[in-house]
Amino acid sequence: MQLYNSMTGRKERFQPADPNRVTMYVCGPTVYSYAHIGNARPAVVFDVLFRLLRQTYPQVVYARNLTDIDDKIIQAAAAQSVPTEVITERFAAAYNADMAAMNVLPPTLEPRATQHVPQMLAMIERLLASGAAYEAEGHVLFHVPSFPGYGALSKRSREEMIDGARVEVAPYKRDPADFVLWKPSTPEQPGWDSRFGRGRPGWHLECSVMIESHLGETIDIHAGGIDLKFPHHENEIAQSACAHGGRALARFWLHNGFLDIEDEKMSKSLGNVLLPHDLLQEVPGEAIRFALLAAHYRKPLNWTRAGLDRARHALDRLYLTLRRLPGEAMPAASPPAGILAALADDLNTPKAQAALFDLAREANSTDDPARQAVLKGELLAAGNLLGLLQIEPEQWLRQGSGGEPAIDSAAIERLLVERQAARAARDFELADRIRDQLAAEGVIIEDGPAASRWRLAG
RNA sequence: GGCCGGGUAGCAAAGUGGCAAUGCAGAGGACUGCAAAUCCUCCACCGGCGGUUCGAUUCCGCCCCCGGCCUCCA
Class assignment of domain A284-289+304-394? Predict the structure, then answer.
Protein backbone atom coordinates (compact mmCIF):
# COMPACT_ATOMS: atom_id res chain seq x y z
CA MET A 1 0.00 0.00 0.00
CA GLN A 2 1.21 3.45 -0.92
CA LEU A 3 0.23 6.51 1.08
CA TYR A 4 1.15 10.12 0.52
CA ASN A 5 3.05 11.22 3.59
CA SER A 6 2.67 14.95 4.21
CA MET A 7 5.86 14.89 6.23
CA THR A 8 8.04 13.81 3.33
CA GLY A 9 5.85 15.17 0.56
CA ARG A 10 5.67 12.00 -1.46
CA LYS A 11 3.96 8.69 -1.73
CA GLU A 12 5.64 6.03 0.34
CA ARG A 13 5.10 2.35 0.78
CA PHE A 14 3.11 1.90 3.97
CA GLN A 15 4.55 -0.63 6.32
CA PRO A 16 3.28 -0.62 9.91
CA ALA A 17 5.82 -0.70 12.68
CA ASP A 18 4.00 -3.74 14.06
CA PRO A 19 1.90 -5.61 11.50
CA ASN A 20 0.00 -7.21 14.34
CA ARG A 21 -1.18 -3.89 15.71
CA VAL A 22 -1.63 -1.00 13.31
CA THR A 23 -2.28 2.31 15.02
CA MET A 24 -4.07 5.29 13.56
CA TYR A 25 -5.38 8.54 14.96
CA VAL A 26 -7.65 11.10 13.34
CA CYS A 27 -8.40 14.51 14.78
CA GLY A 28 -12.11 14.52 15.50
CA PRO A 29 -14.56 17.33 16.06
CA THR A 30 -14.96 19.93 18.76
CA VAL A 31 -18.48 19.17 19.89
CA TYR A 32 -20.09 22.58 20.32
CA SER A 33 -22.55 22.39 17.42
CA TYR A 34 -23.48 20.11 14.56
CA ALA A 35 -20.70 18.85 12.33
CA HIS A 36 -20.58 20.50 8.92
CA ILE A 37 -19.91 18.81 5.63
CA GLY A 38 -16.25 19.79 5.85
CA ASN A 39 -15.97 17.82 9.07
CA ALA A 40 -17.54 14.85 7.37
CA ARG A 41 -14.85 14.58 4.72
CA PRO A 42 -12.01 13.33 6.93
CA ALA A 43 -14.41 11.08 8.84
CA VAL A 44 -15.55 9.41 5.61
CA VAL A 45 -12.20 9.35 3.85
CA PHE A 46 -10.28 7.91 6.76
CA ASP A 47 -13.11 5.48 7.42
CA VAL A 48 -12.22 4.02 4.04
CA LEU A 49 -8.60 3.85 5.16
CA PHE A 50 -9.70 2.10 8.34
CA ARG A 51 -11.69 -0.44 6.33
CA LEU A 52 -8.78 -1.01 3.97
CA LEU A 53 -6.32 -1.50 6.81
CA ARG A 54 -8.64 -3.96 8.53
CA GLN A 55 -8.76 -5.85 5.28
CA THR A 56 -4.99 -6.16 5.34
CA TYR A 57 -3.96 -6.42 8.98
CA PRO A 58 -5.34 -8.51 11.83
CA GLN A 59 -5.69 -5.65 14.31
CA VAL A 60 -6.15 -1.97 13.61
CA VAL A 61 -6.55 0.39 16.53
CA TYR A 62 -8.21 3.52 15.26
CA ALA A 63 -8.74 6.43 17.64
CA ARG A 64 -10.74 9.51 16.74
CA ASN A 65 -11.00 12.00 19.54
CA LEU A 66 -13.78 14.27 20.72
CA THR A 67 -12.66 17.68 21.87
CA ASP A 68 -15.05 18.39 24.70
CA ILE A 69 -13.30 21.25 26.45
CA ASP A 70 -12.76 24.36 24.40
CA ASP A 71 -13.64 28.02 24.49
CA LYS A 72 -16.24 27.63 21.77
CA ILE A 73 -17.96 25.04 23.93
CA ILE A 74 -17.79 27.33 26.93
CA GLN A 75 -19.37 30.11 24.92
CA ALA A 76 -22.12 27.89 23.60
CA ALA A 77 -22.89 26.66 27.10
CA ALA A 78 -22.95 30.19 28.47
CA ALA A 79 -25.20 31.37 25.68
CA GLN A 80 -27.70 28.64 26.50
CA SER A 81 -27.18 28.80 30.26
CA VAL A 82 -26.39 25.13 30.56
CA PRO A 83 -23.34 23.24 31.79
CA THR A 84 -20.76 22.48 29.11
CA GLU A 85 -21.52 18.77 29.47
CA VAL A 86 -25.01 19.36 28.15
CA ILE A 87 -23.55 20.88 25.01
CA THR A 88 -20.86 18.27 24.51
CA GLU A 89 -23.15 15.30 25.16
CA ARG A 90 -25.77 16.60 22.78
CA PHE A 91 -23.37 17.26 19.94
CA ALA A 92 -21.21 14.23 20.46
CA ALA A 93 -24.35 12.12 20.05
CA ALA A 94 -25.39 14.15 17.01
CA TYR A 95 -21.95 13.76 15.48
CA ASN A 96 -21.98 10.01 15.88
CA ALA A 97 -25.50 9.76 14.52
CA ASP A 98 -24.59 11.84 11.47
CA MET A 99 -21.46 9.82 10.81
CA ALA A 100 -23.34 6.54 11.23
CA ALA A 101 -25.87 7.74 8.67
CA MET A 102 -22.99 8.08 6.24
CA ASN A 103 -21.83 4.54 6.98
CA VAL A 104 -18.83 5.73 8.95
CA LEU A 105 -17.84 2.90 11.24
CA PRO A 106 -17.31 3.72 14.89
CA PRO A 107 -13.59 4.03 15.53
CA THR A 108 -11.98 1.58 17.88
CA LEU A 109 -11.62 4.32 20.46
CA GLU A 110 -13.23 7.72 20.86
CA PRO A 111 -11.23 9.34 23.65
CA ARG A 112 -12.39 12.61 25.14
CA ALA A 113 -10.15 15.42 26.28
CA THR A 114 -11.88 15.84 29.63
CA GLN A 115 -11.16 12.22 30.49
CA HIS A 116 -7.43 12.79 30.17
CA VAL A 117 -6.71 15.85 32.24
CA PRO A 118 -4.44 14.05 34.74
CA GLN A 119 -2.43 12.61 31.87
CA MET A 120 -2.20 16.05 30.32
CA LEU A 121 -0.91 17.52 33.55
CA ALA A 122 1.60 14.70 33.73
CA MET A 123 2.87 15.48 30.26
CA ILE A 124 3.10 19.16 31.18
CA GLU A 125 5.30 18.21 34.13
CA ARG A 126 7.60 16.26 31.88
CA LEU A 127 7.83 19.14 29.44
CA LEU A 128 8.57 21.56 32.28
CA ALA A 129 11.22 19.24 33.68
CA SER A 130 12.96 18.97 30.34
CA GLY A 131 12.90 22.68 29.79
CA ALA A 132 10.56 22.52 26.81
CA ALA A 133 7.84 24.40 28.70
CA TYR A 134 7.64 27.25 31.17
CA GLU A 135 5.13 28.94 33.45
CA ALA A 136 4.03 32.50 32.95
CA GLU A 137 1.15 34.40 34.55
CA GLY A 138 -0.86 31.32 35.39
CA HIS A 139 -0.23 29.76 31.98
CA VAL A 140 2.07 26.99 31.00
CA LEU A 141 3.53 27.50 27.58
CA PHE A 142 5.43 25.28 25.23
CA HIS A 143 8.66 26.92 24.18
CA VAL A 144 8.91 26.33 20.46
CA PRO A 145 12.65 27.11 20.07
CA SER A 146 13.31 24.16 22.38
CA PHE A 147 12.29 21.86 19.53
CA PRO A 148 14.61 22.28 16.54
CA GLY A 149 12.40 20.21 14.25
CA TYR A 150 9.53 22.67 14.50
CA GLY A 151 8.09 23.45 11.08
CA ALA A 152 9.11 20.21 9.41
CA LEU A 153 5.53 19.16 8.65
CA SER A 154 4.24 22.48 7.37
CA LYS A 155 7.58 23.25 5.68
CA ARG A 156 7.77 26.60 7.35
CA SER A 157 10.81 28.28 8.75
CA ARG A 158 10.59 30.22 11.98
CA GLU A 159 11.13 33.43 10.06
CA GLU A 160 8.21 32.66 7.83
CA MET A 161 5.98 31.95 10.75
CA ILE A 162 6.91 35.14 12.47
CA ASP A 163 6.63 37.18 9.30
CA GLY A 164 3.23 35.78 8.68
CA ALA A 165 1.94 36.35 12.17
CA ARG A 166 -1.19 38.42 12.02
CA VAL A 167 -2.17 38.39 15.64
CA GLU A 168 -0.73 40.18 18.57
CA VAL A 169 1.66 38.17 20.64
CA ALA A 170 0.73 37.77 24.27
CA PRO A 171 3.25 39.69 26.42
CA TYR A 172 4.07 36.72 28.62
CA LYS A 173 5.40 34.64 25.75
CA ARG A 174 9.12 34.17 25.53
CA ASP A 175 8.84 33.49 21.85
CA PRO A 176 6.06 34.55 19.48
CA ALA A 177 5.55 30.96 18.38
CA ASP A 178 5.06 29.59 21.89
CA PHE A 179 1.67 28.04 22.52
CA VAL A 180 -0.49 27.33 25.52
CA LEU A 181 -0.42 23.97 27.29
CA TRP A 182 -2.46 25.11 30.27
CA LYS A 183 -4.40 28.26 30.90
CA PRO A 184 -6.26 29.66 33.87
CA SER A 185 -10.03 29.42 34.17
CA THR A 186 -12.22 32.04 35.76
CA PRO A 187 -14.56 30.77 38.49
CA GLU A 188 -17.44 30.50 35.97
CA GLN A 189 -15.38 28.57 33.45
CA PRO A 190 -14.83 24.84 33.66
CA GLY A 191 -11.50 24.01 35.15
CA TRP A 192 -9.38 21.49 36.97
CA ASP A 193 -7.22 22.08 39.96
CA SER A 194 -3.52 21.91 39.36
CA ARG A 195 -0.39 23.23 40.91
CA PHE A 196 -0.59 26.05 38.39
CA GLY A 197 -3.99 26.97 39.74
CA ARG A 198 -7.42 26.09 38.51
CA GLY A 199 -7.35 25.93 34.75
CA ARG A 200 -7.89 23.96 31.61
CA PRO A 201 -5.74 22.47 28.88
CA GLY A 202 -4.77 24.14 25.65
CA TRP A 203 -6.18 22.58 22.54
CA HIS A 204 -3.10 20.90 21.11
CA LEU A 205 -2.17 18.94 24.18
CA GLU A 206 -5.06 16.51 24.18
CA CYS A 207 -4.10 14.75 20.97
CA SER A 208 -0.53 14.14 22.08
CA VAL A 209 -1.71 12.80 25.41
CA MET A 210 -4.50 10.62 24.12
CA ILE A 211 -2.23 9.12 21.50
CA GLU A 212 0.33 8.34 24.17
CA SER A 213 -2.30 6.87 26.49
CA HIS A 214 -4.09 4.68 24.00
CA LEU A 215 -1.86 4.03 21.03
CA GLY A 216 1.75 4.48 22.04
CA GLU A 217 4.61 6.91 21.58
CA THR A 218 4.92 6.51 17.84
CA ILE A 219 1.85 5.63 15.82
CA ASP A 220 1.63 4.45 12.25
CA ILE A 221 -0.78 7.01 10.85
CA HIS A 222 -1.96 10.40 12.01
CA ALA A 223 -4.56 12.07 9.84
CA GLY A 224 -6.81 15.08 9.67
CA GLY A 225 -7.85 18.05 7.61
CA ILE A 226 -5.14 20.03 5.88
CA ASP A 227 -6.08 23.08 7.93
CA LEU A 228 -4.77 21.26 10.98
CA LYS A 229 -1.29 20.84 9.56
CA PHE A 230 -0.26 24.15 10.98
CA PRO A 231 -0.23 24.87 13.82
CA HIS A 232 -2.15 22.02 15.39
CA HIS A 233 -0.18 19.06 14.11
CA GLU A 234 3.09 20.92 14.23
CA ASN A 235 2.46 21.59 17.91
CA GLU A 236 1.48 18.00 18.59
CA ILE A 237 4.70 16.87 16.99
CA ALA A 238 6.76 19.23 19.12
CA GLN A 239 5.07 18.29 22.39
CA SER A 240 5.23 14.60 21.81
CA ALA A 241 8.81 14.60 20.63
CA CYS A 242 9.93 16.61 23.65
CA ALA A 243 7.99 14.36 26.00
CA HIS A 244 9.36 11.21 24.38
CA GLY A 245 13.05 11.79 24.06
CA GLY A 246 12.73 13.06 20.52
CA ARG A 247 10.92 10.04 19.16
CA ALA A 248 8.48 10.83 16.35
CA LEU A 249 4.76 11.04 17.00
CA ALA A 250 3.68 9.44 13.76
CA ARG A 251 5.30 7.64 10.89
CA PHE A 252 2.76 8.75 8.29
CA TRP A 253 0.88 12.04 8.18
CA LEU A 254 -2.20 12.19 5.98
CA HIS A 255 -4.16 15.35 5.26
CA ASN A 256 -7.39 15.65 3.37
CA GLY A 257 -8.06 18.65 1.16
CA PHE A 258 -10.58 21.36 1.79
CA LEU A 259 -14.10 21.64 0.64
CA ASP A 260 -15.78 24.53 -1.14
CA ILE A 261 -19.51 25.06 -1.39
CA GLU A 262 -20.82 25.88 -4.84
CA ASP A 263 -17.47 27.42 -5.81
CA GLU A 264 -17.21 29.52 -2.67
CA LYS A 265 -15.36 28.84 0.49
CA MET A 266 -17.56 27.59 3.24
CA SER A 267 -17.83 30.15 5.97
CA LYS A 268 -20.26 31.38 8.52
CA SER A 269 -20.07 34.89 7.11
CA LEU A 270 -21.17 33.65 3.70
CA GLY A 271 -23.91 31.68 5.39
CA ASN A 272 -23.18 28.61 3.31
CA VAL A 273 -22.19 26.15 5.99
CA LEU A 274 -23.83 22.85 5.11
CA LEU A 275 -24.62 20.34 7.80
CA PRO A 276 -24.99 16.62 7.13
CA HIS A 277 -27.61 16.80 9.86
CA ASP A 278 -29.73 18.93 7.49
CA LEU A 279 -28.78 17.19 4.26
CA LEU A 280 -29.81 13.88 5.77
CA GLN A 281 -33.36 15.16 5.95
CA GLU A 282 -33.55 15.07 2.17
CA VAL A 283 -30.97 12.62 0.86
CA PRO A 284 -29.63 9.27 2.03
CA GLY A 285 -26.36 9.42 3.90
CA GLU A 286 -24.92 6.99 1.42
CA ALA A 287 -25.31 9.59 -1.33
CA ILE A 288 -23.40 12.13 0.75
CA ARG A 289 -20.71 9.56 1.33
CA PHE A 290 -20.48 8.71 -2.37
CA ALA A 291 -20.19 12.40 -3.23
CA LEU A 292 -17.42 12.89 -0.68
CA LEU A 293 -15.51 9.95 -2.13
CA ALA A 294 -15.95 11.09 -5.72
CA ALA A 295 -12.83 13.24 -5.54
CA HIS A 296 -9.42 12.12 -4.39
CA TYR A 297 -9.06 12.95 -0.70
CA ARG A 298 -6.08 15.24 -1.10
CA LYS A 299 -7.70 17.37 -3.76
CA PRO A 300 -10.02 20.24 -3.15
CA LEU A 301 -13.64 19.18 -3.41
CA ASN A 302 -16.24 21.57 -4.69
CA TRP A 303 -19.41 20.48 -2.96
CA THR A 304 -22.49 21.19 -5.05
CA ARG A 305 -26.11 20.22 -5.08
CA ALA A 306 -25.56 18.94 -8.62
CA GLY A 307 -22.72 16.75 -7.38
CA LEU A 308 -24.90 15.31 -4.66
CA ASP A 309 -27.62 14.53 -7.20
CA ARG A 310 -25.04 12.89 -9.43
CA ALA A 311 -23.97 10.72 -6.52
CA ARG A 312 -27.55 9.60 -5.99
CA HIS A 313 -27.97 8.69 -9.63
CA ALA A 314 -24.68 6.87 -9.71
CA LEU A 315 -25.83 4.80 -6.75
CA ASP A 316 -29.16 4.23 -8.49
CA ARG A 317 -27.28 2.60 -11.32
CA LEU A 318 -25.32 0.34 -8.99
CA TYR A 319 -28.35 -0.64 -6.96
CA LEU A 320 -30.36 -1.24 -10.15
CA THR A 321 -27.62 -3.60 -11.24
CA LEU A 322 -27.73 -5.44 -7.93
CA ARG A 323 -31.48 -5.71 -8.13
CA ARG A 324 -31.56 -7.09 -11.64
CA LEU A 325 -29.04 -9.83 -10.88
CA PRO A 326 -31.13 -12.87 -10.05
CA GLY A 327 -30.09 -15.32 -7.42
CA GLU A 328 -27.83 -15.12 -4.45
CA ALA A 329 -24.42 -13.52 -4.50
CA MET A 330 -21.42 -15.76 -4.39
CA PRO A 331 -19.56 -14.37 -1.37
CA ALA A 332 -16.21 -13.03 -2.49
CA ALA A 333 -13.16 -14.24 -0.62
CA SER A 334 -11.75 -10.74 -0.87
CA PRO A 335 -12.70 -7.50 -2.63
CA PRO A 336 -11.92 -7.39 -6.35
CA ALA A 337 -8.32 -6.72 -7.19
CA GLY A 338 -9.14 -3.55 -9.12
CA ILE A 339 -10.75 -1.95 -6.10
CA LEU A 340 -7.99 -3.01 -3.76
CA ALA A 341 -5.34 -1.75 -6.13
CA ALA A 342 -7.07 1.62 -6.50
CA LEU A 343 -7.40 2.10 -2.76
CA ALA A 344 -3.92 0.81 -2.09
CA ASP A 345 -2.66 3.63 -4.29
CA ASP A 346 -3.07 6.42 -1.77
CA LEU A 347 -6.80 5.87 -1.36
CA ASN A 348 -7.80 6.52 -4.94
CA THR A 349 -11.52 6.41 -4.28
CA PRO A 350 -12.58 7.87 -7.65
CA LYS A 351 -10.71 5.07 -9.36
CA ALA A 352 -12.31 2.58 -7.01
CA GLN A 353 -15.72 3.98 -7.88
CA ALA A 354 -14.90 3.63 -11.57
CA ALA A 355 -14.02 0.00 -10.93
CA LEU A 356 -17.44 -0.42 -9.35
CA PHE A 357 -19.03 0.68 -12.61
CA ASP A 358 -16.82 -1.67 -14.58
CA LEU A 359 -18.16 -4.52 -12.46
CA ALA A 360 -21.69 -3.29 -12.95
CA ARG A 361 -21.35 -3.18 -16.71
CA GLU A 362 -20.01 -6.68 -16.85
CA ALA A 363 -22.75 -7.87 -14.53
CA ASN A 364 -25.38 -6.25 -16.74
CA SER A 365 -23.86 -7.79 -19.84
CA THR A 366 -23.78 -11.42 -18.87
CA ASP A 367 -26.68 -13.80 -18.51
CA ASP A 368 -24.63 -16.63 -17.14
CA PRO A 369 -26.05 -17.23 -13.63
CA ALA A 370 -22.74 -18.40 -12.22
CA ARG A 371 -20.97 -15.32 -13.51
CA GLN A 372 -23.75 -13.10 -12.24
CA ALA A 373 -23.47 -14.59 -8.78
CA VAL A 374 -19.73 -14.01 -8.75
CA LEU A 375 -20.07 -10.42 -9.93
CA LYS A 376 -22.81 -9.74 -7.44
CA GLY A 377 -20.55 -10.98 -4.68
CA GLU A 378 -17.72 -8.83 -5.96
CA LEU A 379 -19.89 -5.74 -6.13
CA LEU A 380 -21.01 -6.27 -2.56
CA ALA A 381 -17.49 -6.90 -1.34
CA ALA A 382 -16.18 -3.86 -3.18
CA GLY A 383 -19.03 -1.79 -1.84
CA ASN A 384 -18.34 -2.98 1.65
CA LEU A 385 -14.76 -1.81 1.45
CA LEU A 386 -15.98 1.62 0.40
CA GLY A 387 -18.89 1.66 2.84
CA LEU A 388 -21.43 1.54 0.02
CA LEU A 389 -24.12 -0.76 -1.40
CA GLN A 390 -24.86 -2.54 1.84
CA ILE A 391 -28.63 -2.13 2.00
CA GLU A 392 -31.23 -4.02 0.02
CA PRO A 393 -31.62 -2.58 -3.49
CA GLU A 394 -35.36 -2.34 -2.97
CA GLN A 395 -34.79 -0.21 0.08
CA TRP A 396 -32.49 2.14 -1.78
CA LEU A 397 -34.69 2.38 -4.84
CA ARG A 398 -37.82 3.10 -2.89
CA GLN A 399 -36.63 5.76 -0.54
CA GLY A 400 -37.33 8.61 -2.92
CA SER A 401 -35.98 12.09 -2.56
CA GLY A 402 -36.85 12.61 1.05
CA GLY A 403 -40.09 12.69 2.89
CA GLU A 404 -42.84 10.16 2.59
CA PRO A 405 -43.92 8.92 -0.85
CA ALA A 406 -47.17 10.44 -2.00
CA ILE A 407 -48.77 7.02 -2.28
CA ASP A 408 -48.19 3.82 -0.42
CA SER A 409 -46.64 0.75 -1.92
CA ALA A 410 -49.86 -1.27 -1.69
CA ALA A 411 -51.59 1.29 -3.88
CA ILE A 412 -48.69 1.18 -6.31
CA GLU A 413 -48.86 -2.58 -6.47
CA ARG A 414 -52.59 -2.49 -7.12
CA LEU A 415 -52.10 -0.07 -10.01
CA LEU A 416 -49.35 -2.25 -11.41
CA VAL A 417 -51.62 -5.28 -11.40
CA GLU A 418 -54.30 -3.25 -13.10
CA ARG A 419 -51.81 -2.03 -15.63
CA GLN A 420 -50.49 -5.51 -16.29
CA ALA A 421 -53.99 -6.64 -17.08
CA ALA A 422 -54.45 -3.71 -19.44
CA ARG A 423 -51.22 -4.54 -21.21
CA ALA A 424 -52.20 -8.17 -21.53
CA ALA A 425 -55.45 -7.01 -23.12
CA ARG A 426 -53.42 -4.67 -25.33
CA ASP A 427 -55.24 -1.71 -23.85
CA PHE A 428 -52.16 0.48 -24.08
CA GLU A 429 -54.09 3.66 -23.60
CA LEU A 430 -55.09 2.58 -20.10
CA ALA A 431 -51.64 1.16 -19.42
CA ASP A 432 -50.01 4.44 -20.37
CA ARG A 433 -52.48 6.42 -18.33
CA ILE A 434 -51.61 4.40 -15.23
CA ARG A 435 -47.93 4.85 -15.92
CA ASP A 436 -48.39 8.59 -16.31
CA GLN A 437 -50.36 8.73 -13.11
CA LEU A 438 -47.62 6.92 -11.21
CA ALA A 439 -44.95 9.06 -12.84
CA ALA A 440 -46.74 12.11 -11.54
CA GLU A 441 -46.30 10.64 -8.06
CA GLY A 442 -42.60 10.13 -8.67
CA VAL A 443 -42.90 6.42 -9.31
CA ILE A 444 -40.89 5.01 -12.21
CA ILE A 445 -42.09 1.82 -13.87
CA GLU A 446 -39.88 -0.85 -15.36
CA ASP A 447 -41.85 -3.42 -17.30
CA GLY A 448 -40.70 -6.99 -17.25
CA PRO A 449 -41.94 -10.02 -19.18
CA ALA A 450 -44.35 -11.12 -16.47
CA ALA A 451 -44.64 -8.18 -14.10
CA SER A 452 -43.44 -4.64 -13.61
CA ARG A 453 -41.05 -3.23 -11.06
CA TRP A 454 -41.16 0.21 -9.61
CA ARG A 455 -38.90 2.62 -7.86
CA LEU A 456 -39.07 6.19 -6.72
CA ALA A 457 -37.45 8.93 -8.75
CA GLY A 458 -34.32 10.24 -7.07
C1' G B 1 4.20 38.81 0.97
C1' G B 2 5.62 33.41 2.47
C1' C B 3 4.32 28.20 2.22
C1' C B 4 1.11 24.28 0.24
C1' G B 5 -2.46 22.23 -3.27
C1' G B 6 -5.20 22.60 -7.80
C1' G B 7 -6.35 24.07 -13.23
C1' U B 8 -8.10 17.34 -17.95
C1' A B 9 -14.58 16.66 -22.38
C1' G B 10 -21.23 20.42 -21.22
C1' C B 11 -20.69 18.93 -15.73
C1' A B 12 -17.83 15.85 -12.17
C1' A B 13 -13.37 13.27 -11.88
C1' A B 14 -9.07 9.47 -12.53
C1' G B 15 -4.60 8.82 -15.15
C1' U B 16 -0.05 8.19 -18.21
C1' G B 17 6.68 10.07 -21.47
C1' G B 18 4.20 7.20 -27.07
C1' C B 19 -4.01 4.35 -28.07
C1' A B 20 -6.75 10.22 -22.39
C1' A B 21 -10.47 5.63 -16.94
C1' U B 22 -15.30 6.20 -15.05
C1' G B 23 -20.28 8.56 -13.92
C1' C B 24 -24.01 12.16 -15.38
C1' A B 25 -25.68 14.93 -19.63
C1' G B 26 -25.89 14.71 -25.23
C1' A B 27 -26.15 11.99 -30.40
C1' G B 28 -27.10 7.35 -32.98
C1' G B 29 -28.41 2.12 -32.67
C1' A B 30 -30.34 -2.67 -30.25
C1' C B 31 -34.25 -4.20 -26.98
C1' U B 32 -39.62 -2.49 -25.78
C1' G B 33 -46.68 -1.93 -27.84
C1' C B 34 -44.42 2.83 -26.27
C1' A B 35 -41.32 3.64 -22.22
C1' A B 36 -37.97 2.56 -18.16
C1' A B 37 -33.76 -0.33 -17.25
C1' U B 38 -29.77 -2.55 -19.92
C1' C B 39 -26.22 -3.22 -23.87
C1' C B 40 -23.34 -1.25 -28.31
C1' U B 41 -21.24 3.07 -30.93
C1' C B 42 -19.95 8.31 -30.93
C1' C B 43 -18.46 12.90 -28.16
C1' A B 44 -11.49 15.99 -24.88
C1' C B 45 -5.70 17.22 -28.41
C1' C B 46 -5.36 17.74 -21.02
C1' G B 47 -4.75 26.84 -18.36
C1' G B 48 -0.71 29.92 -21.37
C1' C B 49 4.49 30.42 -23.12
C1' G B 50 9.23 28.35 -23.41
C1' G B 51 12.72 24.10 -22.47
C1' U B 52 14.40 18.75 -22.12
C1' U B 53 13.14 14.48 -25.36
C1' C B 54 12.69 10.72 -31.32
C1' G B 55 8.10 11.96 -28.76
C1' A B 56 4.96 15.66 -23.07
C1' U B 57 -1.25 16.40 -20.99
C1' U B 58 2.49 13.57 -18.13
C1' C B 59 9.52 16.06 -16.56
C1' C B 60 11.83 21.35 -15.88
C1' G B 61 11.30 26.91 -15.88
C1' C B 62 8.31 31.27 -16.16
C1' C B 63 3.39 33.36 -16.35
C1' C B 64 -2.06 33.49 -15.55
C1' C B 65 -6.30 31.81 -12.71
C1' C B 66 -8.62 29.26 -8.32
C1' G B 67 -8.40 27.46 -3.24
C1' G B 68 -6.12 26.62 1.65
C1' C B 69 -2.77 27.84 5.73
C1' C B 70 0.29 31.78 7.90
C1' U B 71 -0.17 30.24 15.97
C1' C B 72 -2.37 31.44 22.12
C1' C B 73 -8.40 34.93 22.16
C1' A B 74 -12.04 35.65 18.06
Answer: mainly alpha
